Amino acid sequence: MAHSKRNTSLAFFTSHERSLLKSTWGSQATRLSRDSFLPFASCQLCLQIARDPVACASNGDIFCRECAVSNLLAQGKEIKRLKKEDERRQREIEEEELNRGAEEKERAIEQFERTMMGLEGGRKEGKISASEEVERDQGRGVKRKFELDEDEMLKNAKDEKAKARKELDEEKSAKPTLPSFWVPSLTPSTNHAQASKVAKLSPLCPASSPENKHSLSLRSITTINFKTIPKASSPSEPPTCICPACEKNLTNTIKAVLTIPCGHVLCKPCAAKFMSPDKGPSDPHASPTRQEEKNRVVCYVCETDLSGKRTKAKEGEYGAKAEKGAAKSGMVELRSEGTGFAGGGDNMVQRNGVAFQC
């Protein structure tokens, strides 16, 4: 390449360097067109129009039932594998601790036998026991009684154990090590002592973002009951979803609301108009039952209670577990991708990079 195109001694970029900056380096942003977004009611896993659609009750993500169940089974297998791996790691740590404790105990016994045979010196200078301290305090020539305290025995045993561990560590560190990491006996391994305990795992929604992680289970997914009409131009294509109240087509430009647990879908303006509690002044002469009915929210299609009050749980352990895993009654906004317009959703993508580096 010519030197004139790579002249890095200048205080400014040349035309060629500026073109490279725009095409390769630096932060780049672009606006997505309509063709880059999935149509309404598309599965977040197979990216096709959802067949037998279901939705995540917490965030409103749409999936095919088959895709959601397959993903949950795959996550369940992975969680079981991670749990087995964690159990194996814990067993290895326990075995290492047992082996190390046996080596320390053997080293302490060997050190004691050598001391008793006179091969090594006993107590080092500068260290005195508790009995000698008592003798010094009482003075010389005073007859004393030998006493062996339990706390002193535990302290001595602890000191001997720490000393044996220190000697073992020094011996291991003094051994010459070869840099042949490809040899199976010298293969580096993870430091299990610093490995943290695996937290309790649960299946996550495959459409959740790193900032908004939420769980997903078979009990929390809700079946979606779209009101559809066939396309007159092409009957072979999937039918069009419409709002049962205003009969408008549900697309990415109109926000849709899902009712739980019945699964009917209305557009957001109709849901705010027909499925919201009465905000008028309360009647002081009305009975408590009448007041509850006034604040009660029901589905526009099937009049199912959506006020969020759960029914009384069934008796027994099975009923409590089913109530715990079930989704709460209410309404959730279905998640849909944006449009090609500036105010229609997430239509800008950006990649951050280094513009210039010396």
Radius of gyration, in Å, reads 37 Å
CA distance, first residue to last residue: 20 Å
Per the principal axes of the C-alpha atoms, what is the gross shape? extended
Please state the structural category: alpha+beta
Average pLDDT metric:
76
Order of helices and strands: HEEEHHHEEEEEHHHEE
For the largest beta-sheet, the strand count, sense and barrel status come to: 3 strands, antiparallel
Helix content: 25-40%
How do the helices and strands line up, and which of them pair or pack?
Layout: H1 15-23, E1 28-31, E2 53-56, E3 62-64, H2 65-116, H3 130-138, H4 150-174, E4 221-223, E5 227-229, E6 240-242, E7 256-260, E8 265-267, H5 268-274, H6 288-294, H7 317-325, E9 330-333, E10 348-351
Antiparallel strand pairs: 1-10, 2-3, 2-4, 5-6, 7-8, 7-9
Helix pairs in contact: 2-4
Structure characterization notes:
There is one protein chain. The chain has seven helices and ten strands. The strands form four sheets. Strands 3-2-4 form a three-stranded antiparallel β-sheet. With 358 residues, the protein is of the alpha+beta class. A hairpin with a 5-residue loop joins strand 2 (53-56) and strand 3 (62-64). Helix 2 packs across helix 4 (150-174).
Observed structural traits:
358 residues, 10% strand, 10 strands, single chain, alpha+beta, 3-stranded antiparallel β-sheet, extended, 7 helices
